[in-house]
Amino acid sequence: MHNVIGIIKPGTTKTAVPSKGYLHEHRDTLSCATKNRLWCSVLGGALLLVSLAAPAQVQTLDKVAAIVDDDIILATELQERLGLIKRNLEQRNIELPPDEMLYRETLDRLILESIQLQLAARYGVRIPDAQLDEAMTRMASGSGLTLDQFRAAVEQQGQSYFAMREEIRREMMIQRVQQGNVSRNIQISDQEVDNFMATEEGEAMTQPEFRVVQALIEVSKSDSTADVQRKEDFVDGVLAAILAGKPFEEAVSVIDPYAFTGGDLGYKKINDIPSMFAGVVPSLAIGDTAKVESGAGFHLVYLADARGRERLVQQTEVRHILIKPTEVLDEEQALELTASLKDRINAGEAFADLAKEYSDDIGSAQEGGELGWTNPGQMVPEFEAAMAAATLNEITEPVRSQFGWHILEVTGRREQDIAEDIRRRQVMGYLHDQKYEEELDAWLRKIREEAFVDIK
Q1: In terms of pTM, does the model score above 0.70?
Q2: Which of 190, 221, 223, 388 lies 20 to 30 A from 444 at CA?
Q3: pLDDT value, residue 158
Q4: Where in the chain is CATH 1.10.4030.10?
């Protein structure tokens, strides 16, 4: 491991140090110099710059653990990371690996991080402060804290909030570089999705999930026949109130003459639902309640929600033309052009031809403005409202959204079950995650092999 040295002249207090920041800012010089053994000797302390005017003191300020392309990893960085890893492992009661193995793996991790951060700089990847603040806020809320409370907690533990914030920024940059380089190599075919859905694992993954809430009036062995009947009559009366429109939670909150026990079972697949409920739950619609008798007593079973079963949505088929105001085309002129296009379509010109010629929506212009079948909530609110109010096959008045001025035509409406689409997207996400890990490992090996790394 080589030293990073400073030359301190008698009578001065400033130190000339080739810090990591300095070397990173002068990457062009370093890029050439890392292959020049003379420069490496300077970094290593083999060559000293000595003032001819007066004797100089040489003070070792840090050591270089590794040179990675245009960057260096300092010994202090490595020791800080080692300390952090050891503390984390100790807090989780995980046995520490041998020092040599931990040292090597930690240095390898820092080398890979350095390579990826240099790629991020080369690609122009930036994480704006606003986006970073959002990430920090999510991290804080995960601990049940506001951002200010989280910052105070970090600093109370003797850590630097600023350093943590910058570390999160670097992690986000690395993640973006990984996604950009790895995801583009992942292709998942419809056949792969079909094959997985046909497996036992795929069937289990795509089973519907039911959110069941149950309320129980207990029946004990000491209850007389009359007591049991009174309890059942009471439950029947509560159920009748629910069926008449009384909210489930309000109906089962009574405490006189009997009090319900139970609660929300959360989302569960049918095989994980208690067997006494499994026979009735699939037959319930969301919001329905049923009575179930068991050895414990009388239950009211309420289906609060369900995921993965039939899901009908109202879809709208629509096409549009978008005109964006620009420095050349101001707001009023953009509106006038949009209105004139509406008049030209009503006069007989083809919507598709005008969309190809004028629309500023690159994604749909070449398709004649076609957006296909859209689901509720897919479009911005102004566009959604215009679609809902539009008469079938008529051109709307110009509509302003955050993107500009639109005219649109609703060409169809239908009710569609999208449950199968949801299941397929779920499987596709699972298969993507599996392939992502494999592709990421291969990509990391590749960039490591291609990088210039000199471990000191």
Answers
A1: no
A2: 190
A3: 85
A4: 125-185
